[in-house]
Amino acid sequence: xxxxxxxxxxxxxxxxxxxxxxxxxxxxxxxxxxxxxxxxxxxxxxxxxxxxxxxxxxxxxxxxxxxxxxxxxxxxxxxxxxxxxxxxxxxxxxxxxxxxxxxxxxxxxxxxxxxxxxxxxxxxxxxxxxxxxxxxxxxxxxxxxxxxxxxxxxx
Amino acid sequence: xxxxxxxxxxxxxxxxxxxxxxxxxxxxxxxxxxxxxxxxxxxxxxxxxxxxxxxxxxxxxxxxxx
Lengths: 155, 66
Hints:
The complex is a heterodimer of chains A (155) and B (66). Chain A folds into two domains: 1-85, no CATH class; 89-155, no CATH class. Chain A is 62% helix and 15% strand. Chain A has four helices and two strands, in the order H-E-E-H-H-H. In chain A, strands 1-2 form a two-stranded antiparallel ribbon. In chain A, strand 1 and strand 2 form a beta hairpin. Chain B has helices at 5-11, 16-23, 27-34, 42-51, 56-59; strands at 2-3, 60-61. The model of chain B has no long low-confidence stretch (mean pLDDT 92). Classes of the chains: A alpha+beta (155), B mainly alpha (66).
């Protein structure tokens, strides 16, 4: 049975158009200082006031480039990953499910190794990447099995 | 699971694309079923059997390993 919880196929291209710039922005924000244009007042439900002290429901100034990148990656990635394909049928649904399982296994295996072998502030980038890696692994794996399936079935 | 989909399809003089269109799946799905790479759902198996005018049990057989 084909899943009814997929986005319409028109959203797939929108997803890629958000996801790829999001990834580029995210990588950019890792290696370069952000432009002051992105320093904005934001509403924080929880924010750090100083070490071990928090403020709740307040306005703060924050550079939002990384937040913009994260939103683009998450929304774009979800649309790209979970929109129907033009030739959607039960075989594609099965390949999608298998790929999602594989991506989940891989994501948590890497996270488990990181938990055991990466410590203190060096773990922070792991947490950041882990927000997105399950989507990225899924997209890579799903499109690889689609490509391999197309090769095998065009013989 | 083994199947005679290819045999019955050619006997019925249908191409993979034609059978795929009749049962509402892609040609690649029919190809994957015929090559034993994919086991169809009950609904799809029944649709294929109905299209080829043959019983499901004649079309799909369990193997010892199933």
